[in-house]
Amino acid sequence: MAAAENKRPRISSGVEKRPSRKEILERKKAVEELIRKAVAVKDQLAHFPAFHKYQRNDLTVYLESGRGDQLTLPMRKYIQNLLKVNMEKPYGSEWPSEEKVKRREMVAPEARYIFVKLYSNGLITENSMKEDEGVERIHAACSEDRLCGFVHYRFVVEEDLPVVYVYELQMEPSAQGKGLGKFLMQLIEQIACKNQMGVVMLTVQKANSLAMAFYTKLRYVISSTSPSRVDPQIGLEKSYEILCKPFDSEAKSKLEDGD
Ligand SMILES: CC(C)(COP(=O)(O)OP(=O)(O)OC[C@H]1O[C@@H](n2cnc3c(N)ncnc32)[C@H](O)[C@@H]1OP(=O)(O)O)[C@@H](O)C(=O)NCCC(=O)NCCS
C-alpha cells in the first residue's frame, strides 16, 4: 500500500528502505501468530481480577466471558432484543438488513463476549425495567441470567495490524450513564495490550451522536481508514465512521496520522 510505504524505517542516508518481500512475509506471519495466540485464550477476563466486579452508581454487577459459538438460546434472544432496542433508531432504514448481518455475526466462532450480569440485589428494579417495553421483553426472554449489557469483540487483522475490533457495546437503557460502558472499554483496552494488539477499533453510526460523544470522551479518534478520511465525498455518502485508539507507534502512524 503506497501510504504505508512512507512510514518505513529510514536508513542513515535519509533514503527510505522498502521492506523486502521476506520481511513483509515475516511481519505477516508474526501478526497472524499474535491473533492465533489471542484467539486460543479461553477466558481473557481471567487475567484481570480488577474487572470481575463493578460496584458504583447504585449498580452492582459482575462480568463473565463468552464465545459466539457457545451462546445459549436465551442469550442469543437477549442480544437480538437489546440490539433492536438500542440500534433500530440509529440505523433507520438500514436496520432490517443490518439486523440480519448482526444475527450472523453474533454466533460466529471468532466472536468473543464480555457479559454484564446483575447480582440479585443489583438496583435495576422491575419498575425501572417496565419503563421500557423493549427491555421488558429482553428480561422475559432471559430472566434467570439477569444480563444488563455486553460487549462483543474480536481479534482481527486490519491494515496489516493486529487489532481488537469492538463489534458491539450495548447497555440496557436503565444501565446506561452509570460508568459501565467506560469500564468495559477499559477492559477491552487492557485485553488489547495484554495480547499485543496495537489498537482498538470500532464502527459507529453517525446518527448515534450519544455513542460518538461517549467514544470521543474516551479519546477515540476517526481512523484514517474511515470513509470520511479516505475520501470526503464518499464519507458524505456513508452513514458510519470507523474510530480507533492506537497504542503502538506503527498503529498510531497508520491509523491516527494516516501515513
Ligand atoms: C454508548 C454506551 C455504550 C455508553 O455506555 P454508558 O455506560 O452509558 O457510558 P458511561 O456511563 O460509561 O460514560 C462514560 C463517560 O462517557 C461520558 N458520556 C457518556 N455518554 C455521553 C454522551 N452522550 N455525551 C457526552 N459524554 C457522554 C460520560 O459522561 C462518562 O464520562 P466521565 O467518565 O467523565 O463521567 C451506552 O450508552 C449504550 O449502550 N448505548 C446504546 C447502544 C450504543 O449506542 N452502543 C454503541 C454502539 S457503537
TrEMBL record:
GO cellular component: cytoplasm; nucleus
Family annotation (Gene3D superfamilies): 3.40.630.30
Keywords, alphabetical: Acyltransferase, Cytoplasm, Nucleus, Transferase
InterPro entries: Acyl_CoA_acyltransferase, GNAT_dom, NAA40
Organism superkingdom: Eukaryota
Subcellular location: Cytoplasm; Nucleus
EC number: 2.3.1.257
Family label: Belongs to the acetyltransferase family. NAA40 subfamily.
Record-annotated N-acetyltransferase domain positions: 101-256
Protein name per the record: N-alpha-acetyltransferase 40
Reactions the enzyme catalyzes: N-terminal L-seryl-[histone H4] + acetyl-CoA = N-terminal N(alpha)-acetyl-L-seryl-[histone H4] + CoA + H(+); N-terminal L-seryl-[histone H2A] + acetyl-CoA = N-terminal N(alpha)-acetyl-L-seryl-[histone H2A] + CoA + H(+)
Entry GO MF terms: histone H2A acetyltransferase activity; histone H4 acetyltransferase activity; protein N-terminal-serine acetyltransferase activity
